[in-house]
Each structure stands twice: as C-alpha cells, then as structure tokens.
C-alpha cells in the first residue's frame, strides 16, 4: 500500500466520528479510551472518539492518518480520516495534536483550513465515482472526516493483475463513469489535479471506479514549503502544473491530460513522457501511430488529443472529451441507460440554448476566447429557454412547500387501472399525440395503490428571479423520473440527467428537487410548465423512446419520433415510460406510481 496519505483511502468516504447524536451537540469530541504516551502518532486500537471505535489503521502518510473504525450508533464500518502532518505536529497523552514548533503554526493552520474545505466540498458531491463525506468536525487541535468504507483494488493494481491491456469495452465503461464524475466536479469549478492509476479504486464486486486523493491540505502545505515537486506525478501532470504561466492556467483541460495519461498507461503499460520535457523536444509517439488493432481509432485519437502538451490544444471540457470518445450520445442514468440518438437537427423550438459557465483560471472568471485562454464550459438549458440551468453545487436541501401557500396545482395521485383489451383484439391509441396528453396518460395508467405525491414550492414563479422547486413523496421505494412539458411545448425528461443520475428514493421520504447540482431558474417564455413525476418499482431504459440531447443535460423527446411512438403504443402502458430494465436480466416488477403538477411562469426575462 502506498505511503502517500491521500492514496490510502481504499476504505471509502468516511462517516464523521463524534458523540452520539442523542447528546445534543454538533461537534464531536475525541476522548481516547486508551492512555497514550507523549509523541505517539497513531490512536491505538480500542480508542473511542464519541460513537466511533478505532479498529485499525488503513493508511498513514506524511499528512495524516486513515483509520478503520466502527460506528456504534449505526452499526457499520467507516473510514475515519485525521489531519496530522507529522512533520509539523504530534500527539500528546490526551490525544490532542500539538505543534512541534511555533514556527510551523501558519503552515499547519493553512493545511487545516484546506482539509476542512476539502471535506465541505466533497460533502456536496453526489456521484458513485466521487468520494462522499458524511460529516466532519474540528477537535483535539485538528480535524476529522468520516466516510463510507470502500473495499476494492486500485486501478494500478487491477491493470497489473490483468497481465494484458484491458479490452475497449471495459476501458470505456470505466471512462464513462469517471468522466461523468469529473463533469460534476468541474461544474462546481473544482478540479482534481492528481488523477493517476493509484488514485482510482475499483470497488469490490461492481468494479465501479471511484476517484481518490482530493488532498487539498497536502497541496497547501507543499506549496508553502516550496516543495511543489512532491505533489506532481511525472507522466500524469500536465505542463501547467509545473509552473504558473500567464497563458497556461489550470482548468478542466488539466484533469483531461491526466485522464488521458491514465488511458495511455492502461493501453501501453507505460506512462507518457513527462510533460515538462515535451516542451523542448517531444518524444511522444501518438497512439494512432502504434499497432493497436484491439482499440478503435476514435479512442486512440481522443487520448492523443487529451495528451496534447499545450492546454489550448486539448479538449476544453469533459463534455468535449466525451464527444471525442463517442460517449456524447449515451449517458448512464442511475440503473438505466438513456440512448440519445444522433441524426437530423431538432426543430427550432426544440433547439437547445446554452448557458455559459466560465472556468477560466483559478478565479472562475470568463476566458477571453483566445487560443491560450481557457474555453468556456457550456451547460445545457431547457429547450426554448423555458428554464435556465445553473450548475450550483451547494448542498442537498431544498425549500419546503409552505403549508399555507395557495396552489393551483393540486397533487394528483395515480388513477385507476384501465380495462385491459381482449387478447385477440389489440387496441392502438387513436387520439392524436400531445405532450400534455401523454403526461395525463402516464398518470392514468399507474398501478392502483402505488401512491405518489408531487407539488411545487411555488405555483407561480417570476422569470429571471425565481427558481423551480418541488417535492416528491412515494408510498413505495423505487426510481424517480421527472417529465416536463415546457410552455413552448417541448417534451423533456428532466430527471435523471447528466449531472444527477441518482434517482433511487425511499418509501414515505420526501425528496426535494431539483438538486443543487442542477438548480433551475425560471427563464421564460411566460406560460404554464407541466410536470409528471413517475416512481417506478424497477429502473427504466429509454433506449427506444426517441430521446435526443444536443449540448443539453436533459433528454428531449422529438415531436416526429414522439408522435410515431405514441401512435404505436398500447394503452396499458405509455411508451414514454421506456422499458423496464431488470439488473439481472430476469423478471422484475413493472409497477409504478405517478403524479402531476404545474408551475406558471410570469413576468419578463428582460
């Protein structure tokens, strides 16, 4: 196991350790149950920190310690991470972390602030390939994070055990998940800056890749001690990480280079030449020139582009990289896969507008558009401008509906089941297709007793001022899907989407949407937007529903395809529900509940 502190979190996100929640305090206080000697670094097995009991050490490095701990409140294993840079501090007999010298105070404090900021940032993300922090707190002169305990092997170990390069299907599946995770991060102006094979863990069983090593504290400390070369991995670090240069700022392209280097290592077994040496005389041999018949030219060419020395010659966003890799037309949504067909352009009212999120440099201000300036990251907006998408990763809580607020959108639970046609006389839909009619149809065909409630926090929103917010609650656990017909008639699958694919919900638990990662602003035109919320007992597959996505984070049902699909559907189940997708390929329930609501947009966007 690596001695690098951040690379040892092969135990997963940590759940904060601290006193029992019944104690009424928000700040856990460490109280070692085992006597420590002065200068001891590790907390011994059996030490108690509130409800957490130390069971062992997962990893130890120069900047902290990761413990395996048992959460006595929730009866689960967790990984507990403690900030303890041993070159700057040690531990006394009470368990308190003390500075070795007062001259280290400023550096220690800066690292501590960075450690805390890292915990807060990771706690905001919600993606299966990103480490999740449950809690963090400060105590004993330091700080702690608690995360889930991840079990698995690093990508480096996995590639070594294979004995041969992975096939393209395996590699593409891994890249799909990692690029989606990076898209979530980059949407929050956060960049990993240290992607490498030993910083990706493949979870035991599923082999889901998870990005590790968000070692912000380590970076701050090494920067302050001017030992920056310690944090760079030759072959994986792009040129802009070696020195600050006016025309080479860091951004999404920085992570793209490192990810390209990971792919290069997986395919060839070797790292690319160090980028700093490539500036003078580049010895890099492009993958497309090698004899690699087992891989497509698309994959090899995209990797070569990602490994361009100059930042402006690489893909400027993860979305652009995914397009080069051929992933732009498919996105995994929870346990379902949405296929986004390519073909003719969308009609004008379905054309996707763009909101622009600047990702230039560290300040986050817009780039100047020159070849050396960072490109702008374009984030999708609902077709026709009905709702603007703002990528705001800021937490997971949403405004609840005011009890006394008047509404015109009465929540609709699922209606009665239709009468089944005689087997010998299949019945086709005779009514002309309309998006709003299809929403009503979906609700009317829901499973009796599968109650779903959905309501908007505000039944009327002001264009250019208010956000869309709504609450969903289901009598049964399942997978939530949100359909929207905007005021201009666009028919959209709003959730899950490219930024938020985690649509599993628990029974009788209110879920507030949209989440912070895809906050929706009222952007016009004025009119009524209609919504339907479906909670399906099984995941849904939308591969045959004619969904298209052009630069948007959401899937749009194209009018021509939608009409044909609706006309061919049987009345016992709307074709826009997609197909039930059984994870194991066997039988799975087709039950679902549904509800509708509407939101009126008023005012002017000017």
- What is the β-strand count? 30
Q: How much of the polypeptide forms β-strand, as a percent range?
A: 15-25%
Let me know the largest β-sheet.
8 strands, mixed
Computed Rg: 26 Å
Specify the overall morphology. Answer: globular
> What structural category characterises the helix and strand content?
alpha+beta
The quaternary organization reads as: single chain
> Which whole number gives the mean pLDDT?
73
- N- to C-terminal distance: 58 Å
Which stretches of 5+ consecutive residues score pLDDT under 50?
A: 1-39, 226-230, 329-430
Specify the CATH class of the largest domain: Mainly Beta
Helix content: 10-25%
The overall number of domains is 4
Our count of helices gives 10
Q: Report the CATH architecture of the largest domain.
A: Sandwich
CATH topology of the largest domain: Immunoglobulin-like
What does this structure look like?
The chain has 606 residues and is α+β, with helices and mostly antiparallel strands. The chain folds into four domains: 5-21 and 44-148, 2-Layer Sandwich (Phosphorylase Kinase, domain 1), CATH 3.30.200.20; 152-203 and 232-330, Orthogonal Bundle (Transferase(Phosphotransferase), domain 1), CATH 1.10.510.10; 349-385, no CATH class; 394-602, Immunoglobulin-like. 19% of the residues lie in helices and 23% in strands. It has ten helices and 30 strands. The strands form nine sheets. Strands 18, 20, 21, 22, 25, 27, 28 and 30 form an eight-stranded mixed sheet that branches. The longest helix has 20 residues, at 105-124. The protein is globular, with a radius of gyration of 26 Å. The termini are far apart. Mean pLDDT is 73; it is low at 1-39, 226-230 and 329-430.
